[in-house]
Amino acid sequence: MASLNNFFSFDSDLDVNRRRVSAISSSPPLLASSIFRKSFTFSPRTFSPRVYSIASDSALPIFDYTYEDKFAEHFYDSFLLEQDFGLLSPGSEDTPTINHTPPLNLYNPPYFNENPLRANPPTTYPSPTMTSAKDIKPRIAGPARTVSNSLSLSTSPTFAFHSPPGGSRGSFSGGYPGVSGASFSGSVSGAAKQLKPFDTKDIKVLLLENVNLAGVEILKNQGYQVEFLKSSLPEDELIEKIRDVHVIGIRSKTKLTERVLSYAKHLIVIGCFCIGTNQVDLQFAASQGIAVFNSPFSNSRSVAELTIGEIIALARQLGDRSNELHNGTWNKVSKGCWEIRGKTLGIVGYGHIGSQLSVLAESMGMSIIYYDILNLMSLGTARQVPTLDDLLAGADFISLHVPETPETKNMIDAKQLEQMKDGSYLLNNSRGSVVNIPALIHAIKSGKIAGAALDVYPNEPAGNGDYFTNDLNPWTDDLQNLKNIILTPHIGGSTEEAQSAIGVEVSQSLVRYVNEGTTLGAVNMPEVNLRSLTLDEPNHVRVIYIHKNVPGVLGRVNAILGDHNVDKQMTDSRGEVAYLMADISDVKEAEIKHLWQSLEDLSSRIRTRVLY
Ligand SMILES: NC(=O)C1=CN([C@@H]2O[C@H](COP(=O)(O)OP(=O)(O)OC[C@H]3O[C@@H](n4cnc5c(N)ncnc54)[C@H](O)[C@@H]3O)[C@@H](O)[C@H]2O)C=CC1
Ligand SMILES: O=C(O)CCC(=O)C(=O)O
Predict the structure, then answer these.
(1) Which listed site, 144, 158, 459, 510, has its alpha carbon 20 to 30 Å from 19?
(2) Per-residue pLDDT tens for 541-586?
(3) Among 272, 226, 273, which Cα is nearest to 246's?
(4) Which of 561, 534, 538, 568 is nearest to 55 (CA)?
(5) What ipTM was reported for this prediction?
(6) What mean pLDDT is predicted for residues 416-442?
């Protein structure tokens, strides 16, 4: 029997009917998932193996799978452990004597095949007693406990774990693996290797909406062909351009609909240089094997600060006073002007922006209530209210910080405006669809609402210019003629700090995806990552296979990969789409095309990428 050891670990974060099994085998790199797949057709939905190889002659496969019926449990017991894995159940007669020590801090359960987390608790517990405090004697000098960790094992596929030695994550220019122009400060040996797609000469990038130059530089430094435009494009021009490119970078205005994306035959990745991703058909993109990245919080402080400025400006009617004086009118009044101290701010959506706003507003003496669909921890003395109605009735200022979803469309309509306090204020720095603007115009004209600040609109111009007219939105004139209303051109996140941070963050995600296939941070794909291939591994190839999440795929894929040594592999699924990444060795350049074609020919294929 070839096995050295086996163990089971059970993870409390797994579903009740899901099990994780890990095994170490000294047998030649055995594609356990392949065996699993070939013999049984569990769907990756119910069986998603993650396989990590830790050395060339030993492998640590970890499987998460569900067992919804006896059949699957039986399979686990009899087939996986005893037959094809060549592994031993504890207490088995042929348990080898060579090593019974778990390799790391592994858990050996009391009963084979029983999840200790689900085992019945003891019926009697020792009664709790408090022991008196006592001094702890210092340990004798020297290593009290040594952990043999020469394999650097971790079950957490994090950046830190997967970064190769010498790779620096913190400083971008220092050479993030797969991102920099391969400028590594350490020795060449062990340094991350810059991978290239086998079937693509130049990576073509289209950047729209004036994304920050820091980001543009990162992409150019990779040698990509970058086209940079200051505005977004009308749909027909967008379709013409998107046909050719592998990467597109946008902000909030460019609508990447199913129609537009269906022309994007070479597109592999979309970068949203902003927080919101509602402008992209995320599901359709995933179904085409197109990953989408954004910058989830880099401009959130800027939005929170803008909102603070607007609350004070509305309370003091600053916009009107300033306009009057620009036109030569001196109008020194205090009627209807207030301090914000002691007033109540109602925040709708207590996420990255809403929660920062909460802290800033409280520090200026406001009371904070918030409404969110999630039960969230309050910061400071803020208080979560159970319903939107409670918030509407209790706040002097209401600020919206929700994403655009079907539920948030017209979230503030005539009925909600009516429920607000007389003389209260509304601020919308989220998305234009969240407020019914004609209803708001009516509420301001009637005197119900004392003022409003709007940064976002149902239709926004593609670029800067004289476009904010009734042609864009039919009520524009009415809005412009109201008193105490601040209108800004979607500048919530438009600060130097936010834009350069977003530029760097999103460009790095794009480069990592293009060069290494890493999906960490993707908003529409499962998150998959492996440590970088290094210069020490010249004949290694990274295979990325994005496929339909249907039964039997891994068996077929691994049958194709199985002619080579699979050094490491990870797969995960999200909805209908699954993402497999595998590093295989001993691949001759001439074999790559065949490998790629074999994967392409599988009916489950969404997209195949081979990087070497
Ligand atoms: N004006 C601008 O320039 C900017 C606008 N935004 C917009 O602000 C939105 C919020 O940004 P973040 O705070 O970073 O997002 P976030 O995702 O951190 O927070 C959103 C919060 O809204 C909550 N939420 C979702 N649906 C809800 C509903 N129906 N009712 C109540 N709460 C709901 C969520 O649970 C979450 O806590 C973005 O989605 C984006 O559309 C973001 C950045 C800049
Ligand atoms: O700065 C932009 O273009 C968009 C900002 C925004 O709305 C977002 O980040 O979601």
Answers:
(1) 158
(2) 999 999 999 999 999 999 999 889 999 999 999 999 999 999 999 9
(3) 226
(4) 568
(5) 0.99
(6) 98
The closest alpha carbon to 571, from 157, 228, 59, 267, belongs to 157
Q: Hey, which residues are catalytic here?
A: 431, 460, 490
Strands in 565-574's sheet, in edge-to-edge order, are 5-7, 18-24, 58-66, 47-55, 565-574, 577-585, 541-548, 605-611
Reference 531, options 185, 166, 223, 215; nearest CA is 166
- Å from CA of 31 to ligand 1 middle: 43
The atom number, within ligand 2, closest to the CA of 431 reads 7
List of residues 6+ apart from 142 with CB closer than 8 A: none
Hunting for tokens 């067992």 — which residue is that?
A: 67
Are the C-beta atoms of 256 and 279 separated by less than 8 Å? yes
Q: In which residue are the tokens 């809403």 written?
A: 354
**Distance between CA atoms of residues 54 and 72, nearest Å:** 28
- Centre of ligand 2 from the C-alpha of residue 274, in Å: 5
Strands (E), 341-406: 344-348, 367-371, 383-384, 397-400
pLDDT digits (tens, 9 = 90+) for 173-204: 333 444 443 333 333 456 777 787 776 679 99
Question: Does the pLDDT at position 40 exceed 90?
Answer: no
Taking the centre of ligand 2 as the mean of its atom positions, its distance from the CA of residue 588, in whole angstroms, is 46
Are the C-beta atoms of residues 469 and 479 closer than 8 Å to each other? no
pLDDT for 54 beyond 50: no
Give the ligand at the shortest distance from the Cα of 431: 1
Across 182-194, b (16+ Cβ under 10 Å) vs e yields bebeeeeebbbbb
Q: pLDDT tens, 277-332?
A: 999 999 999 999 999 999 999 999 999 999 999 999 999 999 999 999 999 999 99
Q: Does the structure show a pLDDT above 80 at 38? A: no
The residue whose C-alpha atom lies closest to atom 16 belonging to ligand 1 is 351
Asked if residue 3 lies in contact with residue 86, where contact means CB atoms within 8 angstroms, the answer is: yes
| Calpha distance 23→140 (Å, rounded) | 36
**DSSP code of 9?**
-
Q: DSSP secondary-structure letter at 174?
A: G
pLDDT at 64: 52
Show the tokens assigned to 183.
């400028």
Query: What size, in residues, is the chain?
Result: 612
The 8-class DSSP code of residue 433 comes to G
Structure tokens at 524: 């529409």
Q: H helices then E strands: how many in the chain?
A: 17, 20
Instruction: Strands of 301-350 (E only): list them.
Output: 344-348
What is the rounded distance in angstroms from the CA atom of residue 401 to the CA atom of residue 417? 17
For residue 288, what are the CA distances in angstroms to 18, 229, 280, 282, 377?
29, 25, 13, 10, 38
Residues with CB under 6 A from ligand 1: 275-276, 297, 299-300, 303, 348-354, 371-374, 401-405, 407-408, 429-431, 455-456, 490, 492-493
Q: Rounded to an integer, what is the distance from CA 32 to the centroid of its chain?
A: 29
